[in-house]
């Protein structure tokens, strides 16, 4: 996978793309050579036609007769053989450039998608909170595909149009220098017009890419929330929102199309003057005897060959501008700096004791007040501690900080005495098993989801993990048991079933530190009791951090920390906290209806 130095956003997108694909420069050079050679041989038949006309008209006095072949039949045979050779070479180089450009497009597309996705995975959570999933999907899919389409066809078109202009221009000046300048006169105007159109089209296509990202974001958001849409009967409302975004996309495309569609007709009109000049003045030169009939035929044919490629220049330019707008979006994603970097120290999972210490930790989400402020707490190795508090007190944020999903603003967090910033991220997160209240299951089988993160686990280990999580019985009642497809985000399962699979997944991972973030919030009382009994076994000789709202789930913890507005306000065992008649005791009374 190519790794490039980050480039400045001020660079032209084509420069950024060329520097990105530096390892393919040899393939690019071969593709360019094959495109040019194919066009050279493609332009040769008009010259052969002109030579044939010259043979028929001049016979033994033809241009070809100067090389010693005076027989007319012999001259035509030579031209026939040359035609076969040229046609064969043209076909061979067309096959070569098609393979080279298309494979190049596939390779760069593949590398870009993997690099962009890999870079995306390394970005902090704050990045994703400020962008829609659909917008990012648009970059990873639609924008990269747009670039592929240009490399497939557009790059070759640009080269062949340039080759056509150079070859035909040279031929004109060789055959009839007195009138060639008239045929080439439109060229500066065409180039100037192309550049002018490019400058005006660039911002319009940038707007198109922006609009399609917004549309994809809304579509992705709606499909993810289809249950909510149906339950609130807001189908028409959401359809109108999609219509608004789609209309914005349509209008931005309309503005781009209105300009790009004018390009080809204008080019035709400009080229018409060159064609008329050759047709009229070249014909007069031939009649006057200053230009041979064969040369005149070649010039007429070549003028026609010049016309059609230049009319396609508008379509090619259109494709180029779309590709450059997409390239900018992909490269800007790759240039997004990574805020959370892996440390340099290795800490193998088997050597982790699980002692966690927070000293004067302060953290705030971007542009918000601190969620955690000057927090200090100690989590002994192998103990079960609970963190409780009202909604918004910072409990779940603390989990994200332990996993370094966010970076603290001040203070230190250590694992076994080592600051988290110094540890390799893979080692840190590999040492922690998380069971979140927001369970995410991937589209796949029950077995695949349980073994996610533990691909080496065997069948017996998976079964043992599900039994511990009280999940085996309900899995066996599913249509295909462990091979049942759970659906996207596990939508075919109930909330309690999803949570038990998440617990089984964490148990199978067997981490030295287990974090239970409202791990039993979506299960019934009977299942909760069974899971709590299993957790007593799971948490032995393992550091366990239980984030809980239901206090009944943590009453047996070795220590309970009570948080309020990002600060630690109480700590102790269950009975001790009840005796203090503080915040914990108040929460206990509200939840149980009992007096402390």
From TrEMBL:
<dbReference type="GO" id="GO:0005524">
    <property type="term" value="F:ATP binding"/>
</dbReference>
<dbReference type="Pfam" id="PF00664">
    <property type="entry name" value="ABC_membrane"/>
</dbReference>
<dbReference type="Pfam" id="PF00005">
    <property type="entry name" value="ABC_tran"/>
</dbReference>
<dbReference type="InterPro" id="IPR039421">
    <property type="entry name" value="Type_1_exporter"/>
</dbReference>
<feature type="domain" description="ABC transporter">
    <location>
        <begin position="356"/>
        <end position="590"/>
    </location>
</feature>
<feature type="transmembrane region" description="Helical">
    <location>
        <begin position="181"/>
        <end position="197"/>
    </location>
</feature>
<dbReference type="InterPro" id="IPR003593">
    <property type="entry name" value="AAA+_ATPase"/>
</dbReference>
<dbReference type="InterPro" id="IPR011527">
    <property type="entry name" value="ABC1_TM_dom"/>
</dbReference>
<dbReference type="InterPro" id="IPR036640">
    <property type="entry name" value="ABC1_TM_sf"/>
</dbReference>
<dbReference type="InterPro" id="IPR003439">
    <property type="entry name" value="ABC_transporter-like_ATP-bd"/>
</dbReference>
<keyword id="KW-0472">Membrane</keyword>
<feature type="transmembrane region" description="Helical">
    <location>
        <begin position="72"/>
        <end position="93"/>
    </location>
</feature>
<keyword id="KW-0547">Nucleotide-binding</keyword>
<keyword id="KW-0812">Transmembrane</keyword>
<feature type="transmembrane region" description="Helical">
    <location>
        <begin position="158"/>
        <end position="175"/>
    </location>
</feature>
<feature type="domain" description="ABC transmembrane type-1">
    <location>
        <begin position="30"/>
        <end position="322"/>
    </location>
</feature>
<keyword id="KW-1133">Transmembrane helix</keyword>
<dbReference type="InterPro" id="IPR017871">
    <property type="entry name" value="ABC_transporter-like_CS"/>
</dbReference>
<keyword id="KW-0067">ATP-binding</keyword>
<protein>
    <submittedName>
        <fullName>ABC transporter ATP-binding protein/permease</fullName>
    </submittedName>
</protein>
<feature type="transmembrane region" description="Helical">
    <location>
        <begin position="259"/>
        <end position="281"/>
    </location>
</feature>
<dbReference type="InterPro" id="IPR027417">
    <property type="entry name" value="P-loop_NTPase"/>
</dbReference>
């Amino acid at each position: 996978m190519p790794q490039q130095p980050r480039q400045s956003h001020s660079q032209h997108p084509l420069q950024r793309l060329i520097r990105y694909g530096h390892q393919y420069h040899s393939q690019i050079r071969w593709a360019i050579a094959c495109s040019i050679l194919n066009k050279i041989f493609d332009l040769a038949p008009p010259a052969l036609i002109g030579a044939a006309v010259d043979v028929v008209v001049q016979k033994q006095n033809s241009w070809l007769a100067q090389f010693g072949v005076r027989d007319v039949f012999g001259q035509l045979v030579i031209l026939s053989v040359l035609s076969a050779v040229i046609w064969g070479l043209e076909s061979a180089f067309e096959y070569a450039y098609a393979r080279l450009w298309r494979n190049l497009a596939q390779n760069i597309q593949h590398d870009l998608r993997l690099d962009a996705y890999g870079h995306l995975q390394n970005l902090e959570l704050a990045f994703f909170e400020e962008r829609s999933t659909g917008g990012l999907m648009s970059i990873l899919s639609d924008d990269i595909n747009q670039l592929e389409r240009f490399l497939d066809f557009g790059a070759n078109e640009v080269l062949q149009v340039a080759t056509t202009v150079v070859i035909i221009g040279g031929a004109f000046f060789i055959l009839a220098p007195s009138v060639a300048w008239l045929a080439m006169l439109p060229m500066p105007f065409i180039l100037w017009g192309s550049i002018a159109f490019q400058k005006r089209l660039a911002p319009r296509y940038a707007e198109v890419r922006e609009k399609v990202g917004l549309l994809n974001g809304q579509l992705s958001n709606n499909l993810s929330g289809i249950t909510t849409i149906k339950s609130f009967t807001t189908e028409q409302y959401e359809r109108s929102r999609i219509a608004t975004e789609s209309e914005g996309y349509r209008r931005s495309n309309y503005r781009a199309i209105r300009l790009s569609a004018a390009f080809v007709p204008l080019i035709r009109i400009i080229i018409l003057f060159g064609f008329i000049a050759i047709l009229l003045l070249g014909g007069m030169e031939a009649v006057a005897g200053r230009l041979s009939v064969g040369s005149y035929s070649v010039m007429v044919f070549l003028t026609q060959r010049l016309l059609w490629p230049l009319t396609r220049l508008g379509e090619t330019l259109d494709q180029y501008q779309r590709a450059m707008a997409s390239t900018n979006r992909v490269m800007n994603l790759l240039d997004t700096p990574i805020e959370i970097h892996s440390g340099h120290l290795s800490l193998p999972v088997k050597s982790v004791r699980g002692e966690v210490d927070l000293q004067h930790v302060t953290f705030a989400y971007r542009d918000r007040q601190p969620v955690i402020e000057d927090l200090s707490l100690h989590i002994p190795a192998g103990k079960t501690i609970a963190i409780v508090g009202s909604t918004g007190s910072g409990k779940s944020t603390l989990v994200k900080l332990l996993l370094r999903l966010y970076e603290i603003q001040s203070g230190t967090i250590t694992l076994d005495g080592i600051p988290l910033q110094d540890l390799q991220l893979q080692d840190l997160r590999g040492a922690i098993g998380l069971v979140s209240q927001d369970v995410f299951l991937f589209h796949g089988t029950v077995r695949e989801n349980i073994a996610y993160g533990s691909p080496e686990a065997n069948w017996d280990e998976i079964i043992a993990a599900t039994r511990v999580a009280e999940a085996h019985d309900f899995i066996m009642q599913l249509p295909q048991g462990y091979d049942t497809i759970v659906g996207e985000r596990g939508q075919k399962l109930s909330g309690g079933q999803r949570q038990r699979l998440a617990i089984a997944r964490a148990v199978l991972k067997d981490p030295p530190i287990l974090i239970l973030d409202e791990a039993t919030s979506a299960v019934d009382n009977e299942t909760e009791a069974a899971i709590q009994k299993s957790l007593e076994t799971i948490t032995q000789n393992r550091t366990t951090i239980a984030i809980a709202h239901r206090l009944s789930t943590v009453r047996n913890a070795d220590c309970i920390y009570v948080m309020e507005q990002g600060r630690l306000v109480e700590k102790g065992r269950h009975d001790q906290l009840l005796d203090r008649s503080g915040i914990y005791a108040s929460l206990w009374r509200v939840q149980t209806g009992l007096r402390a």
